[in-house]
């Protein structure tokens, strides 16, 4: 089962969204230079559909998106949580920040509105750098996604 360490409301992770970022622990990617190395450990509280419901009830219409920050140890579970949000909180968009190069074939991409892929590679930078290897995709329709990474570039 996935565990989460903390949450925060953020404005820069997903373009044009007020996002509840949920930081998930036990990250298997362990990117050199990672700014959240504390998430490498298997710490925190279980992230269940009931916890998701509680968080979304708490924030109400103040947020427009939920972003799973990690979860690469159990991508099928992240996918299940995304389906739950779309079923029970249809107005809320769902994003997943993965440190993997590709979305696993066991994940149904259409259950997400945004997917970021790519490990952090220090000399390439993060999403705001034109040289980044990371990409943020926005669902256009079905399984079709558009690369919105340039939105972050200055």
Secondary structure: number of strands: 8
Question: Structural class of the helix and strand makeup?
Answer: alpha/beta
- Beta-strand percentage range: 25-35%
In which range does the helix fraction lie? 10-25%
- Biggest beta-sheet profile: 8 strands, mixed
Number of helices: 2
Poorly predicted regions are none
Spatial gap, N to C terminus: 39 Å
> Which sequence of strands runs across the widest sheet?
3-1-2-4-5-6-7-8
Shape: globular
On the 0-100 scale, what is the average pLDDT? 94
Q: Measured on Cα atoms, how large is the radius of gyration? A: 14 Å
What is the oligomer described by this structure?
A: single chain
Helices and strands, in order, run as EEEHEHEEEE
Give your account of this protein's structure.
This protein has 154 residues and is of the alpha/beta class. Strand 7 and strand 8 form a beta hairpin. The chain contains two helices and eight strands. The mean pLDDT is 94. It is globular, with a radius of gyration of 14 Å. The protein has an eight-stranded mixed sheet with strand order 3-1-2-4-5-6-7-8, covered by helices on one side. The chain starts with a strand and ends in a 7-residue tail after the last strand. It has helices spanning 49-59, 75-88, and strands at 3-10, 19-24, 45-46, 65-69, 93-97, 114-117, 135-141, 144-147. The longest helix has 14 residues, at 75-88.
């Amino acid at each position: 089962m996935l565990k989460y360490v903390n949450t925060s409301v953020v404005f820069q992770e997903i373009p044009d969204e007020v996002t509840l970022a949920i930081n998930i622990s036990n990250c298997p990617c362990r990117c050199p230079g990672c700014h959240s190395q504390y998430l490498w450990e298997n710490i925190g509280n279980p992230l269940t559909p009931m916890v998701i419901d509680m968080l979304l009830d708490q924030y109400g219409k103040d947020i427009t998106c939920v972003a799973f920050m990690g979860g690469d140890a159990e991508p099928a579970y992240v996918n299940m949580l995304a389906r739950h949000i779309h079923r029970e909180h249809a107005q809320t968009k769902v994003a997943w920040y993965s440190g993997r190069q590709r979305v696993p074939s066991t994940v149904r991409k259409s259950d997400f509105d945004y997917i970021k892929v790519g490990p952090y590679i220090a000399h390439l930078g993060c999403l705001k750098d034109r040289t980044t290897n990371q990409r943020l995709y926005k669902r256009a329709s079905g399984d079709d996604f558009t690369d919105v990474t340039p939105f972050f570039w200055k």
